[in-house]
Design a protein that fits this description.
The protein is of the alpha+beta class. The chain is about 20% helix and about 45% strand. GO terms for molecular function: lipid binding.
């Protein structure tokens, strides 16, 4: 297989999207609900993360935290944090730390998306104290209490974890033991009033080598997001995405099938080839790559096979070959972060004689002997390969819920909500 892949024409250099996602404003504002009450922090943590000088923080309370979308620019993070501090043994102050941060997303040299700060403005206001005073602190007073200069540096450090999660978007995911899928962003996301749109290109590796995918006959662009969508996220997959998936699995040999079949007695012209009663076996290979066709409300999987009919094990001897063209309904659903794909019942099937060592065989006899087995076993064996599902583009800390799959002409839409995974360890 490695030798075969090395002989293939190098992958086409045209970079065009075949899938992507639109994160809506409601998805942007989603966060795991939980208590935001005052809580104590360690002395080390106080000094490191809040840059407090000569003071002791008794409690921290997040009064407000919001993330808003700025069209054509990026994101704005607004946070108000109340700090209860004790500068002296006799005085306790409550300080309101307000931080306004502008963020945007870039593509780094490694091809990963990266969240960076473009502006940061922290302010501090004294809310109350045990001395009964309530006033706006002067800049010198503020500097005595909290090191403003270091606040933005600490904010930038808070982006380390989100950026690690963004890197997980481009991880390789297994489809089969020898075939992996990877989703690569083509450019930085587009920020619009309706949401954040990211376009992705799917790549596949077989036996550790990238394979050239067929060129899409129709350039794919992300559908316009619905302004009233209640979903957190809408994923979109082009018709070409599914054709590329089946092409990769075919290159990996995942769909090569051996099908035992019971035909007793064999027709005389076939049985005369064998001196003993050997079981008949079908070996199916693709003579042309599978193709997926998406229409409004339904999908179809087109298969083009050559089925070799013979006997003998382990030395298989073919005495008859049949070309089989079939079409099966395509079923799609989502489980957690995987797309489940399966071939439904065969809707259309044609058999024609390709080669014969036993002379002419009437089409009616071919259908009588082999069509029922092929109709049943081909989709069944393909579904075994597909049964684990295909990983969707995602970042490691989220899973998908409330999912709906809608098939349109040339593409599939998957509106869904986000759910934060419980962190372990």
């Amino acid at each position: 297989l490695s030798v075969l892949l090395s002989l293939l024409v190098p992958a086409h250099t045209t970079r065009s999207p075949d899938c992507g996602g639109i994160l809506t404003p409601s998805g942007l504002s989603y966060r795991k609900s939980g208590p935001r009450n005052s809580h104590a922090v360690s002395r080390e943590g106080r000094q490191q993360h809040l840059s407090v000088r000569r003071n002791q923080i008794n409690s921290i309370k997040v009064a407000e935290l919001s993330l808003s979308l700025i069209p054509d620019t990026g994101l704005r993070l607004s946070s108000n944090v109340d700090l209860s501090i004790t500068p002296t043994l006799s005085t306790t102050k409550v300080m309101r730390l307000s931080i306004l941060v502008d963020l945007h997303v870039e593509m780094n040299p490694e091809g990963n998306l990266e969240l960076v700060t473009s502006a940061c403005k922290p302010t501090v206001e004294e809310m109350q104290s045990t001395e009964g005073k309530e006033s706006q602190s002067s800049s010198s007073d503020v500097d005595e209490e909290i090191n403003i200069d270091k606040i933005c540096l600490e904010v930038s450090k808070l982006l380390l974890l989100p950026n690690e999660e963004l890197m997980s978007l481009t991880a390789q995911f297994p489809v089969t033991p020898s075939c992996q899928v990877q989703y690569l962003p083509l450019a930085a996301p587009v920020f619009a009033e309706q949401g954040i749109t990211i376009s992705l290109q799917t790549t596949f590796q077989v036996a550790g080598m990238a394979i050239p995918l067929p060129v899409s006959p129709v350039p794919f662009s992300m559908p316009e997001p619905a302004s009233s969508s209640p979903s957190h996220l809408t994923l979109a997959f082009s018709e070409h995405f599914y054709t590329s998936l089946f092409f990769a699995l075919e290159i990996a040999g995942a769909f090569n099938m051996t099908i035992p079949v019971k035909i007793t007695p064999l027709p005389r012209q076939m049985g005369s080839l064998f001196q003993e009663d050997l079981p008949v076996t079908l070996q199916a290979v693709f003579r042309s790559s599978p193709r997926v066709v998406l229409e409004e409300g339904k999908g179809a999987l087109k298969l083009f096979l050559t089925v070799h009919i013979g006997a003998g094990s382990p030395a298989f001897q073919s005495f008859l070959s049949v070309n089989v063209d079939m079409s099966a309904g395509l079923l799609l659903s989502i489980a957690d972060i995987r797309m489940m794909i399966s071939a439904a019942v065969i809707e259309d099937i044609e058999l024609s004689l390709a080669a014969s060592d036993v002379g002419p065989v009437p089409a009616a006899l071919l259908e009588e002997l082999f069509l029922p087995t092929i109709r049943e076993e081909v989709p069944a064996q393909m579904n075994v390969v597909l049964s684990e599902g295909v990983f969707l583009p995602h970042i490691s800390s989220f899973t998908y819920t409330d999912v709906n799959v809608t098939i349109h002409k040339d593409y599939v839409l998957v509106p869904c909500n986000l759910e934060l995974r419980a962190r372990t360890g």
